[in-house]
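Thread: Newbie trying to understand structure tokens

Hi all, I'm a second-year student working on a class project, and my supervisor (Dr. K.) asked me to get a predicted structure for one chain before our next meeting. I've only ever worked with sequences, so writing a 3D structure as a token string is new to me. If someone could post the tokens and maybe explain what I'm looking at, I'd be very grateful. Here's the chain:
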Amino acid sequence: MKKIIVYCEVDFVKKRLQEVSYELISKAFELTKKALEISKEEYFVEAVALCDEIDEESVKKAFLSGAKRFVFVKDKCLSTFSQTVFSQCFVEYFKEQGSDIVIFPATSKGRIVAPRITTLLDTGLVADCTNLDFIIRENKMFFAPTRPTFGSELMATILSKTSPQCATVRPKTFRAEFDKNLDGELVEFKPTSYEENRVKLIKTIFDNSTQEGDFSNTKIVLCAGYGLIDHKDKKYFLRLEEIAKKIGAKVASTRKVVDIGLMPQYTQIGQTGATVEADLYIGFGVSGAIQHVAGMKNCKTIIAVNNDLNAEIFNYTDYKIVADAKWVIDQLIEKMS
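---
Reply by user tm_fold:
Sure, no problem. This is what the structure looks like when written as tokens:
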């Protein structure tokens, strides 16, 4: 039986798995069903977490989300994150157990460790994927990760020529699903061949700006697009902030808006920004570039305001308002006054 490894993201303060781990395990579990359906090949999901200790509830949730085996790579050297030590410990485990597919979270830590691991394994890596699938080519099944390319103008499905086949996926790209009927096996692995970490952690300082850009628990997102720009004046961005405060929403933006300096980078939604799964997303003057859509397509209800009837964003919305986004904001401010 073949397997799919999910490299789990760990909160080293609370000693538990981050939500993205369950999202990737759930997607990997879905892939095992797809493999059986299209080629009769049997796969199982193995969740791998590197830490000095792990919360029992995290292990249970990993099983409920689809992991058949939870591998706890345990050592005191893994109490804090080190890209070199973590890479070496994972590779040591991998070389002993092996796998056909490895999925990493495209988090700040995942983006550092994934390239190091794949380099040590002499294999490729498809980064920042928006979808994972299996496809049949010439009567053979391939792991098929998809990501934006050519400046996010096209979506490319990339088939690897090397093994293991590896990919990174952003948080909130997939939904975490839990099934109370699922269970698995817990295995501990003790690494022995890593080098001592030459970097000493002196102090941990939490950056409040990362919390400002955290959309994980946001119910309503109001997104400011390029259509709100008025001679580089922030008037309508400030007005959108005013509306957001009154309805308990959070203001986000597109890459173009961030690039010209009208909104901070942590507000950016898209392939190179945040991914959101809000109950309600409203885009004001958003064109609908593939790169941006990748970050908001999983919102439950999507509304767009754009004066172009043929705007690309309307292909992804539940409701569309064909009007000047600035005029609509003015009307909302007036009604709320």
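A couple of things are worth pointing out once you decode it. The chain has a mean pLDDT of 91. The chain has two domains: 2-205, 209-336. Feel free to ask follow-ups in this thread.
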